[in-house]
């Protein structure tokens, strides 16, 4: 299967001629596939520059043609421009194009009109579909930076749902918020409609469908429960009143972080009583620490330790499955038996004792 991508300026006559030839090849050759991309003349140069930079290509004219290496999983193979595509078609398929210059220009103008119509239609359809409004507090934090790609992956809210991310933090963090905004836009996720910044408290959570409360900034360590409540209560009271005032009636609130997660959840339930049933605490970090402490007390090792003595470190056998790394805890799926691993561990202990 030969899959080619033909991209060009919407009003380019040479793109029009290459497009006609590509359509002919796709119609008459069962193993030839073409994917066409048009860009408005105003954005074509910038789009081409970004494409070439991403793939380390050198090309500066319209159109550009490359071949997708479907069976290799690598980046596309640049074929070239209009002349190179015609030479390729003639050399490999014995086909050429006889389109006249007048017809090329006429088709190019039609392509531009069609492209503009499609863009307008796409924008109108976007206006009919309201994206999910996702608000993130303490958005200048590193946790937010790592959270954004997860939210825009299409796996959290579903592949049919577009989202708009709103980054909320105080005025002093505006520079970091702008950086996070640019990083999110660079992801070019099809599920991300827009990214906005909010540093004014009275505007926070406006129309929010999902609110993610991350750890707030703490200037000093807090030792007593009384100090903890005193430091968190005003902020949670502010968040609660803003949620009651601005959020969607069915908004869901997720409270995450490393410290005082349950306390913040309780305070939010107090100050945003209308949404009390829609507030959930995600304390996986605290839960993991508690489990680890219990395991150490009970001297229990995880099932994935394979019976390795304490103080010995082995690389975990893994396999790549469904886009993620999976640890093989079942020795039946590995080529190393328990006896071999025990012998290797004993050898390591002997070396360490020498």
UniProtKB/TrEMBL annotation:
Q: Name one GO biological process term.
A: malate metabolic process
GO molecular function, one example? malate dehydrogenase activity
Q: Which UniProt keywords apply?
A: Oxidoreductase
- What name has this protein been given in UniProt? Lactate/malate dehydrogenase C-terminal domain-containing protein
Q: Which InterPro entries match?
A: Lactate_DH/Glyco_Ohase_4_C, Malate_DH_type2, NAD(P)-bd_dom_sf
* Family that this chain belongs to: Belongs to the LDH/MDH superfamily. MDH type 2 family.
């Amino acid at each position: 299967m030969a899959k080619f991508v033909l991209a060009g300026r919407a009003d380019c006559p040479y793109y029009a001629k290459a497009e006609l030839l590509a359509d002919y090849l796709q119609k008459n050759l069962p193993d030839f596939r073409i994917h066409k991309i048009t860009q408005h003349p105003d954005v074509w140069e910038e789009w081409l520059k970004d494409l070439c930079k991403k793939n380390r290509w050198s090309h500066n004219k319209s159109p550009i043609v490359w071949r997708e290496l479907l069976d290799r999983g690598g980046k596309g193979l640049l074929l070239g421009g209009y002349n190179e595509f015609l030479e390729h078609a003639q050399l490999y398929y014995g086909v050429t194009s006889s389109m006249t210059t007048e017809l090329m220009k006429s088709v190019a103008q039609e392509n531009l009109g069609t492209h503009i119509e499609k863009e307008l239609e796409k924008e109108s359809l976007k206006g009919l579909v309201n994206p999910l409004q996702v608000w993130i507090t303490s958005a200048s934090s590193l946790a937010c930076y790592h959270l954004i790609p997860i939210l825009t992956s299409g796996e959290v809210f579903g592949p049919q749902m577009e989202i708009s991310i709103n980054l909320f933090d105080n005025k002093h963090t505006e520079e970091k918020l702008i950086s996070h905004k640019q990083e999110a836009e660079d992801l070019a996720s099809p599920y991300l409609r827009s990214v906005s910044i909010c540093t004014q408290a009275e505007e926070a959570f406006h129309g929010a469908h999902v609110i993610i409360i991350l750890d707030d900034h703490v200037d000093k360590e807090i030792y007593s429960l009384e100090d903890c409540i005193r430091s968190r209560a005003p902020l949670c009271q502010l968040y609660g009143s803003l949620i009651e005032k601005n959020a969607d009636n069915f908004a869901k609130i997720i409270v995450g972080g490393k410290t005082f997660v349950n306390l913040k959840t309780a305070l939010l339930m107090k100050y945003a009583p209308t949404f009390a049933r829609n507030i959930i605490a995600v304390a996986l970090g605290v839960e993991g620490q508690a489990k680890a402490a219990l395991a150490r007390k009970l001297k229990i090792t995880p099932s994935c330790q394979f019976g390795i003595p304490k103080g010995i470190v082995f690389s975990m056998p893994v396999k790549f499955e469904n886009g993620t790394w999976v640890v093989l805890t079942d020795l039946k799926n590995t080529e190393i038996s328990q006896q071999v691993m025990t012998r290797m561990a004993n050898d390591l202990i002997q070396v360490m004792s020498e």
